Amino acid sequence: MTDGVELTNPERRMLRSMLVAPSEVHTLDRIMDACDWNDQAVAVGAGQGLCDKGIVEIQETVRRTIHPGQEGHNAIANGLLEARLWSWISSQDEPTMAKLQAKFERHEAGPGVGLLKKLGVQLDSGSFVCEDSSLLKSELQARNMFLASLPADEEDLSERLLSHFKGRKELIEVVEHRSRTWKLTEAGKAMSSDGLDERKQISEITPELLQSGDWKDAEFRSFDVTLESATPRTGRSHPMQELIERIRRIFLEMGFSELVDDYVQTAGWNMDALFIPQDHPAREMQDTFYLDSPASIELDPELVQKWKDIHEHGGETGSRGWSGSFSEDVSKRGLLRTHTTVNTIQHLANNPNEPCRVFSVDRVFRKEAIDSTHLPEFHQIEGIIMEPGANLQMLVTTLKTFYAKMGYPEVRVRPAYFPYTEPSLEIEVKWKGKWLELGGAGIFRPEVTEPLGISSPVCAWGMGLERLAMLVLGLDDIRQLYISDLEWLRNQPLL
To answer: Is 320 helix (H, G, I), strand (E, B) or coil?
Structure first.
């Protein structure tokens, strides 16, 4: 107890050192040296304690320095992307887009051309032109000099160029440096250094203290029982994993078996088997990740022929098919699956005469631009019922049961269209007074089941897990599910 103020031993030591020069500002290094400490946390904790008691004032300053990021180091070594593209363009007699795409990788050509367009480079009949190359060269030089000057204090850099590079991925990174200083308040200056000797403080009575009698002369550490206790930080599953496990439990309780299969598939199983025409927009590069290795995967020739017959003239189903040409080479193309139905349809093909109820919750891949509602990699909840007598009412009842167990008792379906089901449905649940669409469902068409030798009706459905997760967790941005926000993760309720 000092002048009516109770201090811990680290606070006594820090105050004693500051009273030697009561009017000065004390840096962390100075405190560490004067108190003979090697742990900064001790100094920071003692300083905060003295501040809480009105003895010292704390001043915190933040200095930001800009460093090259991973791509920034590459740019320093090899040149900025737009500079490399302009160097090539200016060296060509006829700099065409086709030649540029042959010279540079796809992940460079597209973004690089976009950067050059903002600098005045335009395409005229397939060739690159620039009306004022001097301004372009000046800007490229400024950008190169900016990167070459790093690391540097943020305040010393051009705001325009800093804003530009902050908008580009991994070219620069911002590092914050925080520093603290302490200064005695008037109340602190008025305190005496007498009585600041450090004492042995004990927090609990032990048998040894009682037997020796040392407790009589000891100083007991006080505790403020009115303070809230710290929230325990224990390990837990990610909310997405918790949701997946919850969905798994529901389907297993409903008598379904889980299906797990490969990400890498063929266009044949991914699309042809589902009666999706080969000229369907979903097959284009902007929607599907086609593979370079393996670029092609062999398929059963007899099965491919059945798909060909179905697509071209409807096979034996009574359908007219799509009336277009069918390419076996297209069927063999390797890709990352765009849905998990590719796996359930293969399960049916391998077991055409065995009634089944299976589900999967697994990852799928589509070439989507990342925004608040889209990701290139996400999860799909997939399920099928294949048995004699399976019908639309069974399908709707199953979906309503699932969503009721998820906490959404109000479910409705409305007509929809999918190439592989007839009838087709869209599933909606009521949330906050509004109907939200969460997935599609239907009964596989004969064009899907006949080539696989399936004679029983097949009820099928698919829904996005992330969309359901946004609903369950009350999110407006799908990206929140995958950012490293530990505080948000810790505060999520158990699902």
So the answer is: coil
Residue 247 in domain: yes
What is the Cα–Cα distance from 272 to 304, expressed in whole angstroms?
A: 9
Same domain for 339 and 382? yes
Q: Which 8-state DSSP code applies to residue 231?
A: P
Question: How large is the average pLDDT for residues 424-431?
Answer: 90
- 3-class DSSP state of 386: strand
d(CA 109, CA 116): 10
CA 483 – CA 478 distance, rounded (Å): 10
Whether residues 386 and 275 fall in one domain: yes
Residue 229 CA to chain centroid, in angstroms? Answer: 32
Q: Are residues 61 and 74 in the same domain?
A: no
Please name the residue that has the structure tokens 């449905």.
425
The residue segments making up the domain with residue 51 are: 9-65+177-220
**CATH at residue 456:** 3.30.930.10
Do 117 and 135 share a domain, yes or no? yes
- Tell whether 259 and 372 lie within a shared domain: yes
Average pLDDT, the chain: 88
Both 280 and 146 in one domain: the answer is no
**Is the pLDDT score of 495 beyond 70?**
no
SS3 percent helix, strand, coil of the chain, rounded to 5, is 40, 25, 35
CA distance 495 to 244: 10
366 belongs to a structural domain: yes
Q: Judge whether 297 and 266 are in contact, CB under 8 Å.
A: yes
Q: What is the pTM of this model?
A: 0.55
Cβ within 8 Å of residue 37, ≥6 positions away: 31, 43
Give the separation between CA 156 and CA 171, rounded to whole angstroms: 18
Query: Do the beta carbons of residue 223 and residue 8 sit within 8 Å?
Result: no
Task: With beta carbons less than 8 A apart as the criterion, state whether 385 and 459 touch.
Answer: yes
Residue range 348-400, pLDDT digits in tens: 999 999 999 999 999 999 888 888 878 888 899 999 999 999 999 999 999 99
Task: Please enumerate in sequence order all residues whose Cβ is within 8 A of that of 406, keeping only pairs 6 or more positions apart, or say none.
Answer: 246, 247, 250, 468, 472
Helix (H) or strand (E) holding 291: none
Question: pLDDT of 87-103, one tens digit each?
Answer: 998 898 888 888 888 88
pLDDT(2) > 60: no
Judge contact between 365 and 339, C-beta under 8 A.
Answer: no
Q: Which residues, other chains included, contact 300 with Cβ-Cβ below 8 Å and sequence gap of 6+? A: none
Same domain, 129 and 16: no
Coil vs helix vs strand at 188: helix
Say if CB 35 and CB 12 are below 8 A apart: no
